[in-house]
Amino acid sequence: MDKTGRKLYVRTFGCQMNVYDSERMVEALGNAGYIETNHPQDADMILLNTCHIREKAAEKVYSELGRFRELKQKNADLKIGVAGCVAQAEGAEIMRRQPLVDIVVGPQSYHRLPEMEARARRGEKAVDTEFPAEDKFQSLRNRPRAYRGPAAFLTVQEGCDKFCAFCVVPYTRGAEASRPPARVVAEARELVDSGVREITLLGQNVNAYLGNGPDQKKWPLARLIHELSKIDGLERLRYTTSHPRDMGGDLIEAHGECEKLMPYLHLPVQSGSDRILKRMNRGHTADEYLELVCRIRKARPDILLSGDFIVGFPEETDDDFQATLDLVSEVGYGNAFSFKYSARPGTPAAERRQVDEDVKSDRLRKLQELVRRQQNAVQHAMIGREVDVLFEKPGRLPGQMVGKSDHLHAVHVNDEFVRIGDLSRVRIVASMSNSLEGRIAT
Ligand code: 5AD
Ligand code: SF4
Q1: Mean of per-residue pLDDT scores for the chain
Q2: Residue of 440, 400, 399, 398 lying closest to 423 (CA atoms)
Q3: 296-333 pLDDT, tens digit each
Q4: What sections of 194-346 are H helices per DSSP?
Q5: With a 6 A CB cut-off, is 344 part of the ligand 2 pocket?
Q6: 284-298: per-residue pLDDT in tens?
Q7: Pairing of strands 436-440, 423-431
Q8: How many Å lie between the centroid of ligand 2 and the Cα of residue 167?
Q9: Alpha-helix runs per DSSP H in 308-436
Q10: Interstrand relation of 335-340 and 400-405 (parallel, antiparallel or unpaired)
Q11: What residues are paired with 81 via a beta bridge?
Q12: Is the alpha carbon torsion for 330, 331, 337, 341 positive or negative?
């Protein structure tokens, strides 16, 4: 078969950085003649971009791979690749466990995919989980980014040096590394030229960003944000995910100074108990976090905060868990993600005394109830208010369009005149479980 016109199906698990990486992989294989398809049954190559953060996420990969057996029987040319953090963590072991797999590629080696694909076509197994010295983003940039809607992700930082005792990220994504500001700005301009109006800067520790500036100085995230905000046509900036320890004064101030920086901040704390925070190796106390929240709210009073929480971390007592509930009550989150602790191989906490599964479930339910009440209250308070909404896609119902407010609420309207890419003033009229309903304000 001719090399051009082959079809690629990519399935993405996990975080937003994987979404960004999947797009880059589509582009890398686009150079090798592949076009993207949404149907695995049509594909000549299936790539699973995987997540290793919790056990469930990793296991999903194997159950998904099993489902491709039939497709491979029908199409002997079909190649199957596993990318992302499971690929990094398990390497060639994946092929032993699931011989259907032809390619295993870690998050730092995507730019080598075309060459790996060629090897797979020759019938070889291709594995690459190195942390190569070359800049994979630069190697990937031999074709412009495709327009995928008015809101785009842009990875500026990768990796983590924090080594929280529960987390695999420092092992799967490697040490903290930042892309130079000039390259970030160039990519942002390209996005804006293609029609993008909102950019979310991504990094596992995005606020630890420290890029080598064209002035030979190290640029922190705040400076990068100020520089990006000068781009005409770029209306909104966001960044995620942040660590409390890296929340510098300049970045806090930027929330008050930079109009394009949206009033939403994801600032995970994981637990409200100092004892557990210490055992997690978080490097801060609950009070230090609360003080940070105060300073951020002073700079931008209407900011909406979201967070991540782990319940049932090894040795977590009822009192420790109560401290988490107390912290959540004190902060008042607009949105929060909570997880049962999942022991990850190779991380320090996996070796410690584990909390019973039913205790974890009970705590998760209580925490999620509290968070849900807070989220509902925040959403309810939006009713009657006017917000700016950037429309991103049609809604589920006919005639519906969905977009995001400044506070990252999903907002839908029924309005035949609204177009994708419109940034419109909307009056909120109702609050649903995970979204708001509005009408275009005239
Ligand atoms: N178990 C449960 N949740 C985890 N997270 C990271 N590692 C684990 C783990 N081993 C959660 C943290 C992190 C989010 C991305 O995932 O809350 O902030
Ligand atoms: Fe994982 Fe902690 Fe690094 Fe976040 S800061 S990626 S939770 S080790």
Answers
A1: 95
A2: 440
A3: 999 999 999 999 999 999 999 999 999 999 999 999 99
A4: 221-228, 249-257, 274-279, 286-299, 318-331
A5: no
A6: 999 999 999 999 999
A7: antiparallel
A8: 6
A9: 318-331, 357-380
A10: unpaired
A11: 47, 103
A12: negative
Antiparallel, parallel or unpaired: β 386-394 and 45-50: unpaired
Q: In angstroms, what is the C-alpha Rg of the chain?
A: 22
Cα 160 to averaged position of ligand 2 atoms, centre (Å): 6
The answer to whether the CB of 277 is under 6 A from ligand 2 is: no
- Is residue 204 within 6 Å of ligand 2 at its C-beta? yes
pTM of the model: 0.94
Nearest ligand atom owner, CA of 158: 2
Q: Residue type at 78? A: L
Burial of 293-322, coded b for 16+ CB within 10 Å and e otherwise, reads beebbebbeebbbbbebbbbbbebeeebbe
Structure tokens at 30: 């686009």
The candidate with the shortest Cα–Cα distance to 274, out of 231, 223, 320, is: 320
Tokens encoding 411: 């907002």
- Find where tokens 């092992």 sit: 171
CA 75 to chain centre: 33
Q: Which residues contact 61 (CB under 8 A, 6 or more apart)?
A: 13, 48, 50, 82, 86
